């Protein structure tokens, strides 16, 4: 993109602010779809772009663990945007800054701030020189009573032409500035909403995983529950997940209000600048044409100060302009090297690898154990033919054997393929419904053929629903573990949001420069035209008196 070139970079303030203030884990684009076709525990999954009819195979997910150090993955430090950030550093004797993009480094800020120095220098020179000019004019008028001679028609005409041209230029600049800030504000708000949506989706997914794990502790199939050590592990993981989700939600909520407030204030400031400069240019032109000299000089005083302030504002926008351009390049480079340690780790870090790995293993383990609990009941109770005297194991089981549930993991938690005759997690409830009998109350004995009582069916379905939900969150947890979600976020911002933000920020930058230069030159021609108009009037009066005297003689 053009805004990524070394000079001039383009500003997109929202992303910059979001980098400063956001530290959440962000996940790829997602929408809500229901898991459930099963009676019992139900929870919505926030995972895919549309409802999936089949369990997503884990083996198809491209994984790259953060702790990998071999086969082309370099975990050493990476200097981001190294070439484009090589600027003079005033804090280091104006030597080249070589630290790359790093908003935590004062030398980076000093070097990028130095790029705005020309505008600050122009503002200072303008303020001082124009003040001296006004002082000289005041001294000349107060101390030297000089007659006004030297009227020139060419000077009068040229001053009027240039006054009209620069007034038109100021109006055009104000229009560009106003339109640019409106589009920029809308674009930055959309980017903010996108970043907040990413954080909210991740927090919701983390809470859902926590809810599924917590619900797994309450699952009981024929009084069989998970072992105490697994329940304790679930409690430990739940604490970490809930802490991450709570911090994420709180921080994103606070930061959204803070960033939006900053954007609104920036928009108000730009609107005021555009309106004041437009009003100033129009009044200055009108008063000059009408010959209201006192009002012209009064506006000159205000314009002198406003032009200096506008040049300073140009410098500030140029600084942010450069930082944002650096940020775009840094994002692109980080996407290519997500495992390297960079300055972005301080802004938008990946999820702690140990926590992500622990959560991932725990969801696999709970899924594996719940399937074992269900299959244990099927093999030891439902598919056995007990004599009536062994109640409650006997409830008049009869008919075809109930197919066992496919366990997606081996005992070592590696992926397992379903064997022939096993039912999968996503359709087990529909299959088992055919093996459910009707029971008489209160004995609970089957009165029709079948090997599952409604109570067994409900308990098994609830267990399967939990297992299915945890299994479906596997890809999400893998994305947390290998930083895919951060890569996706930076890629989306760079490709989808940067172009518009770059374009509209450039409008603001161009509008400010046009307004500053046009009003600055208009101020000069207000004074020049007022002087030429006064000389023209005096010359006509003088010529009329001379002509009258000559006629009298």
Overview features:
mainly alpha, two-stranded antiparallel ribbon, 553 residues, single chain
One letter per element, helices H and strands E, the order comes to HEEEEHHHHHHHHHH
Mean pLDDT: 77
Query: What's the shape?
Result: elongated
Number of domains: 2
Q: Would you report the number of β strands?
A: 4
Which segments are poorly predicted (pLDDT under 50) over 5 or more consecutive residues? 1-75
How many helices in DSSP terms?
Answer: 11
Task: Give your account of this protein's structure.
One of its GO terms (cellular component) is plasmodesma. It is a single chain. By secondary structure, the chain is mostly helical. It folds into two domains: 2-109 and 171-350 and 506-542, no CATH class; 356-477, no CATH class. The protein has eleven helices and four strands, in the order H-E-E-E-E-H-H-H-H-H-H-H-H-H-H. The strands form two sheets. A two-stranded antiparallel sheet has the order 1-2. A hairpin with a 5-residue loop joins strand 3 and strand 4 (95-96). The chain is elongated. The N and C termini lie far apart (81 Å). The model is unreliable at 1-75 (pLDDT under 50).
Any chance you could write out the topology, listing elements then pairs?
Elements: H1 13-21, E1 32-34, E2 44-46, E3 88-89, E4 95-96, H2 106-114, H3 117-143, H4 153-218, H5 228-290, H6 293-336, H7 353-382, H8 428-432, H9 454-472, H10 474-482, H11 484-552
Antiparallel strand pairs: 1-2, 3-4
Helix pairs in contact: 1-4, 3-6, 4-5, 4-9, 4-11, 5-6, 5-7, 5-11, 6-11, 7-9, 7-10
């Amino acid at each position: 993109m053009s805004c990524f070139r070394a000079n001039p970079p383009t500003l997109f303030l929202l992303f910059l602010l979001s980098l400063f203030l956001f530290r959440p884990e962000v996940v790829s684009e997602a929408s809500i779809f229901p898991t459930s076709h099963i009676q019992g525990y139900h929870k919505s999954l926030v995972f895919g772009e549309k409802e999936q009819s089949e369990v997503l195979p884990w083996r198809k997910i491209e994984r790259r663990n953060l702790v990998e150090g071999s086969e082309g993955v370099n975990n050493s430090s990476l200097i981001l945007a190294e070439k484009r950030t090589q600027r003079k550093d005033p804090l280091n004797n104006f030597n080249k800054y070589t630290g790359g993009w790093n908003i935590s480094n004062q030398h980076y800020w000093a070097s990028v701030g130095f790029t705005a120095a020309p505008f600050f220098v122009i503002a200072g020179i303008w303020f001082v020189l124009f003040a001296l000019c006004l002082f000289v004019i005041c001294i000349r008028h107060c101390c030297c009573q000089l007659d006004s001679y030297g009227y020139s028609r060419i000077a009068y005409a040229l001053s009027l032409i240039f006054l009209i041209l620069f007034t038109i230029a100021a109006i055009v600049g104000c229009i560009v500035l106003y339109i640019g800030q409106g589009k920029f504000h809308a674009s930055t708000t959309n980017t903010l909403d996108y970043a907040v949506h990413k954080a909210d989706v991740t927090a919701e997914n983390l809470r859902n995983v926590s809810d599924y794990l917590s619900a797994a502790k309450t699952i009981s199939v024929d009084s069989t529950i998970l072992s105490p050590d697994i329940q304790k592990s679930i409690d430990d993981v739940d604490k970490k997940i809930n802490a991450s989700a709570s911090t994420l939600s709180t921080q994103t909520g606070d930061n959204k209000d803070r960033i939006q407030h900053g954007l609104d204030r920036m928009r108000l400031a730009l609107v005021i600048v555009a309106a004041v400069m437009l009003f100033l240019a129009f009044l200055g032109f009108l008063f000059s044409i009408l010959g209201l000299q006192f009002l012209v000089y009064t506006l000159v005083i205000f314009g002198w100060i406003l032009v200096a302030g506008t040049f300073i504002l140009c410098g500030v926008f140029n600084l942010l302009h450069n930082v944002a351009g650096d940020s775009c390049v840094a994002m692109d480079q980080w996407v290519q090297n997500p495992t390297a340690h960079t300055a972005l780790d301080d802004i938008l870090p990946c999820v702690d690898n140990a926590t992500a790995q622990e959560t991932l293993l725990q969801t696999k383990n709970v899924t594996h154990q719940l399937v074992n609990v269900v299959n244990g009941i099927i093999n030891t109770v439902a598919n056995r033919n007990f004599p009536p005297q062994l109640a409650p194991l006997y409830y008049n089981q009869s008919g075809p054997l109930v197919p066992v549930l496919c366990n997606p993991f081996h005992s070592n938690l590696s992926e397992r393929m379903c064997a022939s005759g096993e039912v999968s997690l996503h359709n087990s409830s529909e299959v088992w419904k055919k093996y459910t009998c009707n029971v008489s109350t209160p004995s609970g004995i089957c009165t029709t053929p079948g090997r599952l009582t409604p109570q067994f069916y409900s308990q098994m379905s609830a267990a399967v629903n939990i297992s299915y939900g945890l299994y479906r969150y596997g890809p999400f947890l893998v994305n947390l573990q290998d930083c895919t979600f951060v890569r996706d976020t930076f890629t989306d911002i760079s490709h989808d949001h940067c172009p518009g933000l770059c374009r509209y920020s450039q409008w603001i930058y161009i509008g400010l420069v046009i307004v500053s230069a046009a009003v600055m030159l208009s101020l000069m021609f207000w004074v020049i035209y007022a002087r030429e108009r006064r000389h023209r009037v005096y010359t006509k009066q003088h010529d009329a008196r001379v002509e009258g005297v000559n006629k009298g003689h």
